[in-house]
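Exercise: predict the fold of this chain.
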Amino acid sequence: MLPHWIPKGDGKLLYEFLPGDTSRQAHPLELANNSLHGGSGESGPVTFLDLGCGAGGSYSELSQCGRQIRWVGLDIMDSQEVAVRERNGLAFCAYDGVHIPLANESVDVVYSRQVFEHVRYPESLIQEAYRVLKPGSSFIGSTSHLEPFHSRSYWNYTPYGFCVLLRDAGFRSVIVRPGIDCLTLIGRRYLSYLKLTGILEPFFRRESPVNIFLEALLKVLRHPTERRNALKLLFAGQFCFLAYK
């Protein structure tokens, strides 16, 4: 029984970044929606930058959030996702993968879902995200931890390592949450060769199999929320991050 957790080793390194409110699997767009409804000046318009927007999929969900959104989508021109873009009339912009073509402190939310594993110079781009954000605003997204190579990905990050990159860029109050587990993502890659990836797609938005198992087991053992998050992150295929300027 562990009514109280005394973190050691890797858990101790990660402890300051672990949330204590919930250990459920997170999705970056849900975190972004929560951020839009939880900030100051909630009635005013929000400038929302989707960094690595691909086909612009975030716009549809965010347009239903009840806030006035100035949505800006940014991506490199030779992205595979950009090549199949079908949306018209949205504020799409191109950039060189490093320099964000926006003014200092002009953005309320920078959102980046599963992009940084494909970024050639991640530290420089994180610094650019910090530059364009207004003071007190948030950088929200997700990236890969134990995910198979895909779509010209360069890196996989540890949750701790990515938090250090965010902190070194100047971000404060950095938090990481577990995403879909690694075994489900590996299974998805195998199933892709059989054109059966749709079987596992729902687990990106709801608790995936390994996360279900860990949540049930660790609750029975009375592990605190931070400990449950730490163990889910250990086996995470992807993880979510939230950082404030």
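Check your answer against the key: The mean pLDDT is 91.
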